[in-house]
Amino acid sequence: MSATPQKNRASRRVLAAAAGLVTVGALVAAMPAGAHERGHGHGHGKGHGHQTPARTVDVQLLSFNDLHGNLEPPAGSAGMVNEVQADGTRKDVPAGGVEYLAASLRAARKGHPYSITAAGGDMVGASPLLSGLFHDEPTIEALNKIDLDVTSVGNHEFDEGATELARLQNGGCHPVEGCYEKGKKFKGADFPYLAANVTSEKTGKPILRPYTVWKKNGVKIGFIGVTLEGTPDIVTANGVKGLKFHDEVETINKYAKELDRQGVKSIVALIHEGGAPASASYNYDCDSPGAGDGVSGPITDIAKGITPKVDALVTGHTHQAYVCTIPDPAGNPRLVTSAASFGKLYTDTTLTYDRRTNDIVRTAVKGSGKKGTKHHSPAPSNPVSANHIVSRDQKPAKDMTDLIARWNTLAAPISNRPQGYISADINGRGSTAPEKPLGDLIADAQLEGLAPADKGGAVVAFMNPGGIRADLVYKASGSEGDGVVTYGESFTVQPFTNMMNVVDLTGAQLVSALQQQVSGPNEASPKILQVSDGLTYTLDMTKSGADRVVTDTIRLNGEAIDPGKTYRVAMNEFLAGGGDGFAALGEGTDKLVGASDLDLFNAYLAAHSTASAPLAPPAADRITVIQ
């Protein structure tokens, strides 16, 4: 998801000193652009033997997105999937965890001799401690075992820069921390990362393969992978240094034409950009009468602009679940899918491949079981796509259980350390309200740590909502005891370990920053800053743009903001760089660099909670919202 600070330095701070970013040229040299053929097809079920192949063959496409290194089942609301029941009621179903994702995918492949597994980016980054502590090597290892065939890059694949992304692809031990297990060298990803719209500023060439071609028994399907063009706006400058990000539609159309010239007529686009469905339930009928496209947001315009040469779109980034049909430029229905996040869902799509035309037959498309509009009919085939829950009721995959146990043993000395105590769930990622209880807690921790004169003299703190990656769950998994917050849990909430900044901003700049939450690039999808205790104001969402912030209600410690006065403001380095569309916050002067956000958070937990006096969830009453 967007709006997340991007520099995951936690394990470097825990285990070693930070390393500098190597040149992008090293990545370009290591990862030449071009086609890459894959065709192991997982081999499940019986093949055709020596029989004459039928004209059409069903190809199974299994897909997921936004795993974010969630190897263990995500806790609290982050691990729930909303499901519509037969009687129309809804319930939350526990889901996710790589043990169950592996089991689900393996079970789904049975009986399908032609099966491909693809992903829509953000496989790593913003990861829980079990993966993030080891620079996401455990997740790459798990994806190799799952038999992932291909993935696009997402914005989080750039959290630690292009050179670290190259290491995840090509292997090799970490340049600073070395190898994590004696005698074992990290071998990298068995699957290709695709980055068609990410080029080197020096060479103008893609830094990774733009596409790959999957082949089996004469069946050829091309995959083009892109991330959102706006990646530089949601990643720190070091993460995208030396890179250019290009328009998604233009890039996909360019490489679709190139694949077509090579005789590859069946093409799937893996796009790390998404939208918002009309319902939060994963099994909502996106193509039901009156639903329109069933999904809104950036992906709709992208889908409508991508050449009809592309037969299906696997998307991500927004962490939403949808299986929709959106017309291509020729007016033909085309599947657009997304499988939520954290491995809670997977999408199962049937692509009917015509051996005579080498193309996918799109005679009728079914999204979530709903038939779309028919067009040309060279063969009576009805491709079907649906999202499926990764249930925790099934038997977990033993190799994944063993993988998790092995890495947990390495992480245990750090991850199990108690940091504080809570009396109930404190929701962050799981809260749908503009002001989140965990957001208040984090902002208060930042203000307290940076208010002393020798620490920066801050009078207010801002936290970006996308940087809150989880909830603090009272009854967490594990054996630490209810209400105990471990280092692993606090790290999962704030996995980037961004350094804190304190800067001078005028009152006018503060007001502008609050207005930028709901205007400009953030007008369609507001990004509401979490604020420290003492700052209050009203948001009127019945209005539009900057007018949504009722300026005469803004108070700091009971006093109106003085446009000409200078205020010391604390925020993480991502916001201080103007990230997430907050240009006003990037105008700060007299910068002081403080401790990391995670260090301040843990210090606050330790100072304000004990086993006998745990922290209660904040009231979340600083921002008054008029709907």
Task: Please provide a written account of the structure.
This protein has 627 residues and is of the alpha/beta class. The protein is built from 14 helices and 33 strands. Strand 20 and strand 21 form a beta hairpin. Helix 2 (24-30) packs parallel to helix 6.
Number of strands: 33
Number of helices: 14
Largest sheet: 9 strands, mixed
Structural class from helices and strands?
alpha/beta
Terminal CA distance = 24 Å
Query: Segments where pLDDT lies below 50 for 5+ residues?
Result: 1-23, 28-35, 43-49, 364-383
Strand content: 25-35%
**How much helix, percentage-wise, in residues?**
10-25%
Q: What spatial form do the alpha-carbon principal axes imply?
A: globular
Radius of gyration: 24 Å
Q: Average pLDDT, to the nearest integer? A: 89
Features:
627 residues; alpha/beta; nine-stranded mixed beta sheet; seven-stranded mixed beta sheet; 14 helices; 33 strands; 22% helix; globular; disordered N terminus
